[in-house]
């Protein structure tokens, strides 16, 4: 069955089953994304729901997508041809409506510094105990729907708390998180990532964009 339905942003806890269950290797997915990306917001928690359905384990790899663009043949939105900018605006309007999500095409705090929110995600993944999918969605929702600056500590702490994590993760291990954030960018370049969101399976199948989540589901089910 093709997984094309758009779900509401209702969050279900991701349930990774680990590298093996009764000797059967379970899929692993590396998730490269930027907290500034509108398409990460529009994805909601559909990725996590698909991963849970097929017992896939997710590794979250927030990255600096602005730095990625010139290293992967792309351009930042502000540098694109007007026809591409206009199409992007139409596509965001359509896709957010399709997903049933409130969306502000010109948020008050975009672009902003994505590093602090990315550090919090890195720290949360190491700490465990909360819902990573909800954390990513809460941060991106703050930017694209709630007119909040995701570079601000209070906004990040609120997202951590909403997702069941210790709000203090917004300020802990800053040097280590910064190193991993930079490392994620280098890994993204090395592995052929060129946009956000970008999903890579442990068999090196690559899926770019939230509109390819249905294809990812088909792949995990063995149909594609």
TrEMBL record:
Coiled coil: none annotated. Keywords: Isomerase. Pfam families: DSBA. GO terms for molecular function: 2-hydroxychromene-2-carboxylate isomerase activity; glutathione peroxidase activity; glutathione transferase activity. It is an enzyme of class 5 (isomerase). The active site is at 37 (nucleophile). Residues 28-220 form the DSBA-like thioredoxin domain. One of its GO terms (biological process) is glutathione metabolic process. It catalyses: 2-hydroxychromene-2-carboxylate = (3E)-4-(2-hydroxyphenyl)-2-oxobut-3-enoate. InterPro entries: DSBA-like_thioredoxin_dom (IPR001853), GST_Kappa/NadH (IPR051924), HCCAis_GSTk (IPR014440), NahD-like (IPR044087), Thioredoxin-like_sf (IPR036249). Its EC number is 5.99.1.4. It comes from the Bacteria. Belongs to the GST superfamily. NadH family. PANTHER family: GLUTATHIONE S-TRANSFERASE KAPPA, GLUTATHIONE S-TRANSFERASE KAPPA 1. This is 2-hydroxychromene-2-carboxylate isomerase.
């Amino acid at each position: 069955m093709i997984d094309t339905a758009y779900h509401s942003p209702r969050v279900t806890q991701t349930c990774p089953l680990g590298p093996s269950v009764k000797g059967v290797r379970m899929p692993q997915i590396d998730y490269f994304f930027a907290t500034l990306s509108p398409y990460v917001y529009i994805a909601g928690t559909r990725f996590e729901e698909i991963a849970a359905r097929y017992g896939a384990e997710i590794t979250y790899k927030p990255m600096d997508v602005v730095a990625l663009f010139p290293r992967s043949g792309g351009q930042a939105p502000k540098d694109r041809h007007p026809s591409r900018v206009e199409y992007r605006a139409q596509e965001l309007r359509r896709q957010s409506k399709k997903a049933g999500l409130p969306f502000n095409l010109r948020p008050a705090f975009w672009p902003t510094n994505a590093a602090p929110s990315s550090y919090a995600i890195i720290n949360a993944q190491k700490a465990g105990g909360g819902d990573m999918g909800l954390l990513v969605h809460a941060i991106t929702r703050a930017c694209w729907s709630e007119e909040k600056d995701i570079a601000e500590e209070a906004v990040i702490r609120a997202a951590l708390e909403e997702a069941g994590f210790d709000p203090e993760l917004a300020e802990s291990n800053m040097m280590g998180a910064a190193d991993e954030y930079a490392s994620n960018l280098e890994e993204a370049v090395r592995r052929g990532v060129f946009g956000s969101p970008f999903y890579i399976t442990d068999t090196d199948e690559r899926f770019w964009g939230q509109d390819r989540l249905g294809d990812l589901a088909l792949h995990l089910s063995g149909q594609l």
